Amino acid sequence: MELTLIAAPLSAALILTNLASILLASLQLKRRSIIAPPAGIAPAVSIVVPARGVEPFTEETLERAFSLDWPRYELVFCVAHADDPVVRLIRSAIARFPAVPARLLFGDDRISGNPKLNNCVKGWEAARHDWVILADSNVLMPRDYIQHMMSAWRPDTGLVCSTPIGSRPDGFWAEVECAFLNTLQARWQYAGEALGLGFAQGKSMLWNKPLLDANGGIRALAAEIAEDAAATKLVNGLGLRVNLVAAPFEQPLGRRTLGEIWSRQARWARLRRVTFPLFFAPEILTGVAVPLVLALVAAADAGFSLPLTAIAVLTAAYLPECALASAKGWYLSWRMIPAMMARDCILPAMWVRGWLGGAVDWRGNAMTIRTKTAELEETPSGA
């Protein structure tokens, strides 16, 4: 019974903490609705899009970027190498939408070990307007994309971001990635914002260009290996807040493999460990694994049914997650609970991996993240 007195309250506390995070996130989030374009004079916006390689939804995401319902905006596409296969698609899109000002820039400014940030430098410096959005090329922008970003800006804001919401999964492992992105990572990010701990997410970042330029410009984001971590620390250091859009934007996934999920999540885990170690340390407690083990230990000690205990814990963990996804219009299917279970089996190993050194994969390159200097060494992935 001594084990029960220790394990049972700990398990209950972790389950209640996860439920509280879902409630907090639900209060911050809104189901997607259409925001009309501004009736009066609207500020002009530059959208800087770093691109590399062709993905299954590249043509659609490009078309969406040229179809935004905002009076004045420009698109600045950044590609490190002119022979990248995505160049043909970008040029074709620019030709099909001549009414939208758009440029394609080449070059790789090595200001950091972060390939995406290096790719963005030329676009930032070429942006013509005071409001600049750094948007990943796989963000599926709705027509009111800019409206959602601008409406989240407040007097005390230094940066507006959107976490990616996984959609259009093709196959079980893509649904596992939805379980990572949506009801785990997005949920905790919005719960953090509710508690005043907002932090940046690099998928979509709205900056006031004069503000950032007055504090080192885009090159200041090289202070950390992850540009969103550097952005968070810079904005907080100015006494300003990172705000999230009320309805985050989709990232269509298509097909995924277990190896791709592991590679991506291992990289993110390692980056979080290096940039925010105190926040990374308790991540092991965010999934169901720890409360389930504690509940089973308590049940075994007290002579309760282990299968019934497991069912009770899994129900308390996963049904609220499904309710959150349903309420906010995120992807949901009958396979999501098995996908959440697979995710929570991966999480402990991913957490351990985050504390270890060694190379991780970043879009075809083997990268070694240095713990002390928070830098990357880029080597060919086949090396």
UniProtKB/TrEMBL annotation:
It is found in: Membrane. Pathway: Sphingolipid metabolism; Lipid metabolism; sphingolipid metabolism. It is a multi-pass membrane protein. Its main location: membrane. The chain crosses the membrane at residues 6-27, 274-300, 306-331. Keywords: Glycosyltransferase, Membrane, Transferase, Transmembrane, Transmembrane helix. This is Ceramide glucosyltransferase. It comes from Mesorhizobium shangrilense.
